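Fold this: Phosphate ABC transporter ATP-binding protein
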Amino acid sequence: MSENTTQQTQTASTDDRSPTDDRSPTDDRSPTTTAGETVEQTREEWTEYEFRGETKMAVEDLDVHYGDDHALKGVSMEIPEKSVTALIGPSGCGKSTYLRCLNRMNDRVSSARIDGSVTLDGEEIYQDGVNLVELRKRVGMVFQSPNPFPKSIRENIAYGPKKHGDLDTGLLARLLNRSDADERDELVERCLRDAALWDEVSDRLDDNALGLSGGQQQRLCIARCLSVDPEVILMDEPASALDPIATAKIEDLIDDLSEHYTVVIVTHNMQQAARISDQTAVFLTGGELVEYGDTDQVFEDPHSERVEDYITGKFG
């Protein structure tokens, strides 16, 4: 074969490749996006999670825009009651936006536009006339950084029930020979015990809550959330600012809470998600829910190549 013929054959072989395939002829790896994710088409069945028990909250075709930014795209998933659902994914993938949609916290963002359906016990929370105070009482939120009120430990717990009128029993308390203070103190003790904090603060309930350690402040915020008797507890990276010992206490607490409450938690710590959750939802670049299922399945045998790459640290 002549040198000219050889060159033509090599050129034809190179030109036969897809115009979107910029890999070398010997590179059989899947193409990736600029974010480092493998290019793939998400399949519906990857997010169709069948679980035992009742659905507490359901989201269907949820889209969220912040101005021109499309933060969530067509997300649909059901959240089972009395369990822990973990939301994981790289920064900017929309998991915190999704969390805030569950009690309409995004209503406070002027540029936000929400389309789709979110239900709590089958009732649409985005319909006209929904009482947002009552909704956020039923669906409480614990934020990333502890934010106790600059009040006593006791008042941090009692503040919410007093605002809702749950402690102002007045005449009934007097007829039962009980004072509002008795009822308040019982509530404070119960919530602090439920948040695994009572033994550490029972002798200083009138101290300012800002004097507590970071881990104690976060557990106090969880106790404050419990004081209004929520049904769902949303947690946005509740242990990200805490040391390993405080983090372990929060994780143990979440496990205990799931016996009585529906817990939805955003975390960047994949080991934490694997330890504490019953089911895991994986959001990836572009606000897309890519996979949702039993936590063991998602971490050990994910359907999506992108999810496997994220979990094994190839990007994110």
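Residues 1-29 have pLDDT under 50 and may be disordered. The first strand starts at residue 55 and ends at 66.
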